[in-house]
UniProtKB/TrEMBL annotation:
InterPro entries recorded: BrxB
Biological source species: Butyricicoccus porcorum
Lineage: Bacteria, Bacillati, Bacillota, Clostridia, Eubacteriales
Domain of life: Bacteria
Pfam families in the cross-refs: BrxB
Descriptive protein name: DUF1788 domain-containing protein
Length: 191
């Protein structure tokens, strides 16, 4: 099945009441991964924006809310007045140190992660959450970390992570090359 066919199937699935209400998954919370070849990133971005706009114009009671994880990181750094400081810190201390420092500042692995709180505060009751931009965040942010922390605070709406890599139902492989930790709680949205 082509990527376009998979996206069409995903869009149709998201229209179903059982998907929107997180029903039919046993007692599991509706967390999904839509994996795709990283080289198709721009095509997927365009399609995600198309779905969001279509939903916005439809008057549908369920809102498609798109969170670009990279944009969230940049916004938080700007709001805290750290973005310019990060540039200087990276020049002086190197990429590895700034990656670790930004991760610590965002409390990425903590229950009160700034990214998770950002998403939680901006997610309406009747929504479908799209997470995008995970590839742009590497290595600061890892997909399994976001999903694990988000899973603890958002359990009433379906969450779909658009993932530039491979997901086989257990293992996440970013860009089809970088092995992330295993993640068992998400369902593959479309095979």
């Amino acid at each position: 099945m082509s990527l376009e066919e998979r996206l069409n199937k995903a869009e149709a699935l998201m229209q179903k009441p059982s998907f929107r209400q997180n029903k039919g998954l046993g007692n599991e919370v509706g967390y999904y991964i839509f994996d795709y070849p990283a080289e198709q990133e721009l095509f997927v971005r365009e399609r995600v924006e198309y779905i969001r706009k279509k939903n916005e114009q439809s008057g549908d009671e369920y809102r498609v809310v798109v969170f670009d994880l990279y944009d969230i990181i940049i916004e938080i750094l700007k709001d805290k007045g750290y973005l310019e400081k990060c540039y200087d810190f990276e020049r002086k201390k190197g990429f590895e140190r700034i990656t670790k420092s930004v991760g610590n500042m965002l409390r990425i692995t903590a229950k009160d992660s700034l990214i998770v709180n950002y998403i939680k505060e901006r997610t309406p009751e009747k929504a479908i959450v799209f997470l995008v931009g995970i590839g742009k965040c590497y290595p600061i942010l890892r997909s399994h970390t976001v999903l694990n922390n988000l899973h603890q605070v958002i359990d009433n709406v379906p969450v779909v992570m658009f993932y530039p890599g491979k997901y086989d139902g257990q293992e996440l492989v970013l860009f089809s090359e970088i092995k992330d930790d295993n993640y068992y709680r998400a369902f593959k949205l479309v095979d």
